[in-house]
Amino acid sequence: MEPRAEKLPRPRVEALDEILGTPFKVLDDGMVRLVDYMGDDAAVVQAARVSYGAGTKKVSDDRGLIRYLLRHRHTTPFEMCELKLHVRVPMDAWRQWIRHRTASVNEYSTRYSVAIDAAQQTASDQWRTQSVDNKQGSADSLPLETGQGFSESEAAFQQRARDLYQERIEAGVAREQARKDLPLCTYTEAYWKVNLHNLLHFLALRMDQHAQQEIRDYATIIGREIVARWVPLTWEAFEDYRFGALHLSATETDILAAVGAGDIEAAQAIARDAGWLKISAKTGNLLRNRERMEVEAKLQRLNLTVPWQS
Amino acid sequence: MEPRAEKLPRPRVEALDEILGTPFKVLDDGMVRLVDYMGDDAAVVQAARVSYGAGTKKVSDDRGLIRYLLRHRHTTPFEMCELKLHVRVPMDAWRQWIRHRTASVNEYSTRYSVAIDAAQQTASDQWRTQSVDNKQGSADSLPLETGQGFSESEAAFQQRARDLYQERIEAGVAREQARKDLPLCTYTEAYWKVNLHNLLHFLALRMDQHAQQEIRDYATIIGREIVARWVPLTWEAFEDYRFGALHLSATETDILAAVGAGDIEAAQAIARDAGWLKISAKTGNLLRNRERMEVEAKLQRLNLTVPWQS
Amino acid sequence: MEPRAEKLPRPRVEALDEILGTPFKVLDDGMVRLVDYMGDDAAVVQAARVSYGAGTKKVSDDRGLIRYLLRHRHTTPFEMCELKLHVRVPMDAWRQWIRHRTASVNEYSTRYSVAIDAAQQTASDQWRTQSVDNKQGSADSLPLETGQGFSESEAAFQQRARDLYQERIEAGVAREQARKDLPLCTYTEAYWKVNLHNLLHFLALRMDQHAQQEIRDYATIIGREIVARWVPLTWEAFEDYRFGALHLSATETDILAAVGAGDIEAAQAIARDAGWLKISAKTGNLLRNRERMEVEAKLQRLNLTVPWQS
Amino acid sequence: MEPRAEKLPRPRVEALDEILGTPFKVLDDGMVRLVDYMGDDAAVVQAARVSYGAGTKKVSDDRGLIRYLLRHRHTTPFEMCELKLHVRVPMDAWRQWIRHRTASVNEYSTRYSVAIDAAQQTASDQWRTQSVDNKQGSADSLPLETGQGFSESEAAFQQRARDLYQERIEAGVAREQARKDLPLCTYTEAYWKVNLHNLLHFLALRMDQHAQQEIRDYATIIGREIVARWVPLTWEAFEDYRFGALHLSATETDILAAVGAGDIEAAQAIARDAGWLKISAKTGNLLRNRERMEVEAKLQRLNLTVPWQS
After folding, report:
1. Can you tell me the distance from the alpha carbon of A219 to that of A203, in angstroms, rounded to the nearest whole number?
2. Is any Cβ of chain B less than 8 angstroms from the Cβ of A147?
């Protein structure tokens, strides 16, 4: 890396320039649109080469280098790229969104301006039941009939909330106070700017099946419509190494290695030592154990024998 | 600074230990209580001495050193102290709170658990009018009669919101979705942990008269009841150098220096060059100019002549 | 989570209080010692319970909950604990150290004070050869004889550097300038404060076999002597889920699943599609491919067949 | 702020595009060059308008709005702009540089690659004496003759350092270890990416007269050659409100107000209460007091009477 005197052209990505400013619709009245960006796959490679040496200089190696970086969590080169979005989101999804502290944010202020006159409305077929397995998740849809009732009561309630807000504003109540009873799903808007490393972290968490459906819809649009166009090599590597990855703990690895070696008894011994094979005195069955259930799922995904199931 | 072999006692602050766990009430149903802390004024001094040299070793200098650090914005020694609070706050105030990205947060999850059954209720005499000067602020109270009406309609509305939430939960709607129409002022709880430097920044902004009343109430309790007990020297310096400080721009400084020298014409010339003395062609009066109005306020605070007012 | 009125005792960890202030020696003249801390395993659990619900309240579950958090990268509860160290480190190791941006630092200033009169000296048997496999790493030791020569020339050179520094200081050269030719391995000292989440990230990277030996020595002491005493449950989980973990990409998982199912051809096809099985036209052998080599190592660790090796 | 469907052109700044890639020389062998950027003055304004309301929509107001933001430390809109530089810097200056934790960095690795064969050489007329007033600063130049001696001994020493490094590399010593005795002023290179808010903070500290000359040279080039071209309105406001500003504490403000009102006795009383007017029992003169000296300097800058000097 030596100082070069030549004039540089500014990096640009044609596929992104084509969608600059175009809103992608999300939910009933939300959207995401690209406002600006900085860098591309080549900027990641350029940064990695200054850090990780000049050994891999051929253009053909770019894909391999990006995959290497992501696989081994060498994350700093991905910070060299930056994305800026304009989003319109229900406030309850936005609260989850801004828990990611590593982004820059300018949000529409309902102290300065009258609140946006829209709240997210749930359609009759979109009311979800509480998941039993997953304390924080949803499961199937409610019966359409029940859903219809809830959609109607919601519409009426949101109208009542809006009227109340309007009455206060008209009576001269301060905007910052008048808004206090608006529903959590009232829409807000913001500029959101984040670097590629932090964006991938956001997407890994928010495109995940454990994320709430509403924010998943946003994350999926950002990932598949914007990031995939922007940095295609990084996106491919991300899908392979992060999004679809399987993580094994040291203990899990030991159990799999014993299974791999055909030593079922050794595998059982490791699990027993880890406390995963305790037996209920009452029923004689294995006691419920979360870690054991997780390794069973992993063994099954890899088509390997679960050593404590005959 | 040389390695020392002696065993250290753990720093503690008696005045804080006395209030560990005690809730300070805020608003109608909110609170702040201290859960844990690390460091004290002496930890700030200790850190400063390693950076800024061994020149000021006497205990009597601690106060002077802390004042020096704060005055000159040498902020890193203040990062050596840490505070951890348990807070109960309406979600609309909490949204402002967590915009401060440099803290650690664990918040009560309404995906995992049923939402807290309380929303902040505004008393009849606490409805505030919109400020005319300050687009984001409040001014006086509304007439009690009007306020009474608003308090009543709010209570009814909040009850309706709660009923709606309850109906959904009972019908098996997922908690993460059932909550979507709860009012913004529904209470939440959280652990909030922050270092002293970032806490002072938070307090400077949120104890300010431009901050919304609700979050000011929290910030004021944290500042006066907790920080003042914890790091009394830092708190005194903060009040002097940050909270009550006056900032002059280069141009303002030049105008004041001209006034100080008795050269009113020079002062006028500087203001004119800055574009602050434009005259309305219609009225012949000075056009409204925000920067001029601000320097006028500063001149008045310092009992100095405003050079363009005779 | 409801406001409680009872007074809280301040969390403390006896095993840590015993080593407060005790220096652990590192390298020839470096050290690490604990200055203060905040929180413990119970603070992690407490924070997790406010976020992740009240479902797992029994004390017996603490270990399971901490393991769950670490396994699923729910990292915010670990931010509730904080550690503060006093370290003495060669500047070249310190440069790697402070690349971790999420800590608070106050370092000894060689602008304010005369530089510490010590540089790290490498013993005759500690000169390492350049690794061939690993561009950034070291391999075996150099022959003792060669090492002896290097240790002697280093001692003479460091003495010369010190003399030069001293000459400049005595002639009145500013300290900030006089230091410019000191060796990179000159010792510095600092206070370093970091939360447990960021500390674990630091340890995962710096205790790793790819980290430079010098900083590994520091990281290992911090991990095994301090963190293991401080938060034993977290440390155990960390060793299992982070330090000894095995990560499989989506493609690797698919190959392992095919091997697990006994379908060697399918496994080969996946690797071929991924471009890992290209044949050299010259030799007829598989071309060198980093990703293939890594999955081979993983298959071997799990005692599974490498499907392209007969 | 409503979703707009029109296609946006990507923001660009012609004056910056002209210098993309052009190295600005710093010190004897260092440089700074612009690699990429995102946003401009208009992006700051755009972000401010979404937060601070639609009241100030006229293009003519952009300058006023930016000045308002900077004056009142509304910093988030400045985070919407991003700058990426390629720098070549002596490691001792670079250590100060990367203490700013809010930037993204990829640095040339002397573990992967052979160290850059250049160290910063100080010319005969550039050896500075230690400042007496300012513990961390420099004062005048040393006599040319003395300087010549130091430049010669430095050149010989740096050559010796390089030879030693070369001997080690040739004998097969690992690069990560061979480098340990290189002088602190050995050059390194890096990509450095930072948002405008954090960049202004960096410049405020590093262009300051208390900063070390070497890093000031870099900061000044970045400020005057790059930032001034990039965001001219922001730069103008920065120079006025930050770089040339004067800060008064509450106590200082009270003293100035008393002086402004002509009440010298009241001013003295305030200073006395603050402990600034203590008299030496020995000499009968005022004791040295740093805070008093600072307010005296401020009074003098404003051409106001120092109330305790007759």
Report:
1. 6
2. no
Q: What is d(CA B46, CA B52) in angstroms, rounded to the nearest whole number?
A: 10
CA distance B1 to B141: 58
Cα nearest neighbour of C101 on chain D:
D101
Mean pLDDT of B80-108: 96
CB of B37 closer than 8 Å to CB of B83: yes
* Interface contact D244, partner B, CB < 8 A: yes
Is the pLDDT score of B27 beyond 50? yes
Element of type H or E holding A294? helix A290-301
Counted across chains C and D, CB pairs separated by less than 8 A come out at: 150
Q: How many CA atoms lie within 13 A of D296 on its CB side?
A: 12
Q: Is C240 on the interface with D (CB under 8 A)?
A: no
Assign D144 to helix, strand or coil. Answer: helix
B129, B138 Cβ separation under 8 angstroms: yes
Q: Is the pLDDT of residue B60 over 60?
A: no
CA–CA gap between residue B16 and residue D50 (Å, rounded): 42
For residue B138, what are the CA distances in angstroms to A168, A176, A180? Answer: 13, 8, 14
Question: What percent of chain A stands above pLDDT 70?
Answer: 93
Using pLDDT thresholds of 50, 70 and 90, give the confidence band for residue C216: very high
Find all residues with CB under 8 Å of D116, minimum gap 6, and list them. D108, D186, D187, D188, D189
The ipTM (two decimal places) reads 0.92
**Hey, what are C236's tokens?**
């155990």
Q: Does CATH number 3.40.50.300 belong to domain B14-117+185-243?
A: no
Identify the helix (H) or strand (E) that includes residue D156: helix D144-170
Q: Is A14 on the interface with D (CB under 8 A)?
A: no
Measure the CA angle with vertex B118, ends B116 and B122; round to 5°: 150
Instruction: Report the run of H or E that residue A151 belongs to, with start and end.
Output: helix A144-170
3-state SS, residue C104: strand
CA nearest neighbour of B114 among B67, B55, B158, B162? B162
Contact B274, B251 (CB under 8 A): yes
- pLDDT tens-place string over residues C20-35: 999 999 999 999 999 9
Q: Kind of pairing, strands D187-195 and D82-90?
A: antiparallel
CB contacts, 8 Å: C246 with chain A: 247-248, 252-253
- Of B227, B110, B247, nearest to B180 by C-alpha is B110
Query: How far apart are the C-alpha atoms of D302 and B263, rounded to whole Å?
Result: 12
Which chain D residues in 194-213 lie under 8 Å from chain C, judged by CB atoms? Answer: 212
Name the strand (E) or helix (H) holding C177: helix C175-178
Kindly tell me if the per-residue pLDDT of B59 is higher than 80: no
Instruction: Please write down the HEC assignment for all residues of chain B.
Output: CCCCCCCCCCCCCHHHHCCCCCCEEECCCEEEEEEEEECCHHHHHHHHHHHHCCCCCCHHHHHHHHHHHHHCCCCHHHHHCEEEEEEEEEHHHHHHHCCCCCCEEEECCCCCCCCCCCECCCCHHHCEEECCCCCCCEEEECCHHHHHHHHHHHHHHHHHHHHHHHHHHHCCECHHHHHHHCECCEEEEEEEEEEHHHHHHHHHHHCCCCCCHHHHHHHHHHHHHHHHHHCHHHHHHHHHHHHCCEEECHHHHHHHHHHHCCCHHHHHHHHHHCCCCCECCCCCCECCCHHHHHHHHHHHHCCCCCCCCC
CA dihedral C172, C173, C179, C182 (to 10 degrees): -80
User: Is pLDDT of D189 > 80?
Assistant: yes
**Secondary structure (3-state) at C120:** coil
B 44-73 → C contacts, CB under 8 A: 46-48, 50-55
Does domain D14-117+186-243 fall under CATH 3.30.1360.170? My reply is yes
